[in-house]
Fold each of these.
Amino acid sequence: MLGRKGMWLVGSVFTIAGVVLQLVAESTALLMAGRLVLGVGVGGFSVTSPLDMGEVAPAQLRAPMLMCWQLTLSVSQIVAAGINRAMALEPATSFSFRFPIGFQLLFPILVLAGLPFVPESPRWLVARGKTDRAARSLRRLFPGRGRDRDREHPDPDPSIIAALQHHMDTESRLHSGGGWTQLVTDRVERRKVVVSAGALVAQQVNGIQWFYYFRTVFARDIGLQDPFLMTLIVFSIQVVVVAAAVVLADRLPRRRLLLATTGIMTVSIFVVGCLGIPSHEVQNQVIGRVIISFVILEIVAFNFAWGPLGWTIASEMAVGRNRNKIYAVAVAAFWVTVWVTVSTLP
């Protein structure tokens, strides 16, 4: 109902409200309430952004564009790690934890500032019968298509209009039979949900979140002298690997790539578990370095395959009359899995 831009607006407002609540919090209850509000905003972006990327990207660039969602997550992690590293060197004051929280205001503010210049998804507009706005959006997305045409005629190329009309007819036909109950009762729609949600659930059940959430404590317990620096190094490697995946991963057989990296991750996390338990007995620096080496190997394997491909597969399988609903269920399953693994596995 709100459109992609509308959801970004709502997500930005919730994100700002959540951050402000955490900044002014003097109690754990208010801090948690702010985190909950912030989570609503982040959830809105998690659902809407990959959907929009899949809708506006040309077919040949769709998969790499969807993988860029994981790249943005990786870049944000290295920025956060750098800020935390700097704050760890500061005196232990409220500023040390409030500044990283307040820094989160930058991104929703940038989104709000850029919204007027971002075209709405033509696919979403067509599905709502707003073909004139969809045509304008297409012109903004693909300005080169009409470069050779008479500048006195503002209409887009007739082929684009024809494609737009085709999509409008297709969407009208598909949406006429959609509904939440079909995600369970319809065999084809149910299979889409299972594959789409399953890709994001499988992305998380491998236990990768233990490092993202508890990396500093873990690095300290295995005897590393500077856990924050280690985190910064690992995240720098991660950005390079995800960037390589954006360029290369879609050229490789997905099933074999996922199976191979799953094997590497299984061996890595097994070695880390065997050498790092119980953690308080890990005093040998050599053992600590071996552990962190296998942690890096696990991070590399994850971010070359499951990290970017999980979002790509989930978006590609969310198609047809229940596209938005299928992807919403998939992202909800993703966050529930993150919560369960983080709360139980460590």
Amino acid sequence: MRVPAVQHSGQPVAGQRSDVQCIFYCIFHHEAGPKIEVQEPADFIVKESFDKVSRYLITKTDFDNRFIWLDAFGSRIMGCAQCIEDKRYKRNAMHFNIGLVISMDCQVPVKYELIVRKLGRYFHSLEVETAFLSDPDAQTKLLPVLTSIRASLNGPGSCKLQVLPGRSLELFLKPAAPLEAAAMPQDFEVPVLVGRSPPVKTDIVTSLILPYIDGVSHVAKIACMADVDKSIVKTCLQNLCSLHAVRFLPLTLYSDSYACLTGLHRLVSDPRLGQLCQEAVTLSNKERTPSIGRLFRLFSCMSPGSTLKDLLTLHSGLAANVDVLRLVQFGLLHCLIRRVSAYPVRLHWSQTGSADCSVGLRGTDQLNRLLDGYRSMDEICASTGLSRQMVEERLERDSLVVVIRR
């Protein structure tokens, strides 16, 4: 797909980032089918490569005005297909897309989504009102525009172009809140929405998995319930984390233990934080909102030696009308508490695989291989597909397994 020998005036200068490798304009030609009309640099996308991915760039009407992200040929291709229905066009419709090719080295590629969406809307409106794209000289007029856009995105990150008199195009790459590349989530981590509402604009995969981000289901379970490939779900969640829309927490179970952190005092000293905690953890009866003092005492009762189940049993009065799951999540998100993780370790390995194994663990080679002290109970459960209770029951029957909590 790349043609390294090609040089063009739109190439970024030394010292500038070069995330945007190419910007292109493609259409559905009434005789030739999908084709690239203009691209900068020239010949960056060869015909053979474009033919393999054209169905994702010139889409059916069901995917019109939908953001599409495609990893192919060692790059990321982004587009937002447009369709204008009008009798003046051949076949009574014009299908086009103005997309970007982003380097795989770009740490936060999701920041270009709004740029791609705006380009699609802008040129859709420009064509409807002025027939800019269907003009016979469209290629000549569009090339300098695309060249300026690419150079600006790779340079200052913003541009203002006067495409036609009275029709300017403004693009701003830098968001209000700086985006940082998020780590790829693990199978056993639980995504939690941290905003009051999900992102306004979502792609197809995000719209599929959002209903399953409930603060309880881990990544592997979400992929299974949404019937989406796990690697795609991970990439999508990673992008949402970069946009500060989700955070990742460990799985919360009643058999877990938690410990207070020094920042717990902020719950009392910061009135806003205390109010947010009350709003987040109060159950349906708002008239019985727990006081900040009661929530502070409930947090203070958490210790490495007692489980969440023990806490609810011994302090049921403090937990009245409190959603304990949300209480734990709030404490983790705001660094008021930390989770005490369990790491099972097998003290001795049998050469035969049966002499040193109890009846409960005989034959479970996959589970045995994970008992190395480096994998947490969450990772073991996600890897084996077994529930926490099943794993704990099997480990309890093996005298050669100890559990380290830290």
